[in-house]
Write a structure and sequence with these properties.
Layout (H helix, E strand, L loop, with lengths): L1 H12 L6 H28 L1
Length: 48
Amino acid sequence: MISILILFIPFIRSEDGISWQGGVALILLYIIFIIIELTLEVGIVAGG
């Protein structure tokens, strides 16, 4: 959770909001998160 907080600090301090580059970065991070969660879920179901 600390690493996620560190990633969001630039967005929190920005007074202009989120730029399109920041939006793309957040979407990519979300996609990576979903892939990791699905991979872990399949591994847990198949392994146990």
